[in-house]
Amino acid sequence: MTKARDLTTLFATLFLFWLLLNGSLAPDVLAIGLVVALLIAILFRGSLAVLSEFRATPLAIVTAVGYLIYFLKALLQSNLQLARIVLSPSLPLTPGIVKVRTRLQSRMGRMLLANSITLTPGTLTVELNGEWLYIHWVTVESADIEAATASIVSGFERYIEVMYG
Fold this sequence. Notes:
Elements: H1 2-22, H2 27-43, H3 58-87, E1 96-101, H4 107-119, E2 123-129, E3 132-137, H5 145-164
Antiparallel strand pairs: 1-3, 2-3
């Protein structure tokens, strides 16, 4: 039953995305979207089902809204911090790659964490290997795993853990 639900969820997500991108309900656009979404859903049902690991509980849905607010706040703060660095005559950069740990268990949760870090200016997820993430950080504050984890990962992780586990 889970596989059928995953396939349906992936198909519906892809088809909705197709409709949003095209902005048209013309019969030919609908037909192509149906065929392509179904084909992709069948071929990649085990690897592209982003919502398949989402815990569809009221708490997870409320947490998803909280996550979005937290992400936008982190995005704004990172942009301002990076702009301050770039505009500073001394250009106070201390770049490096830090190793951090995540306690997230689901693949999609880890992927969302890695992408959230990458989308935040000043950090870039270079590698995700099990519970370890290797992150390029423009202003390394600490090479200590626990301190770097607390600074980069913990804020996102507390929301994602409720949504994905």
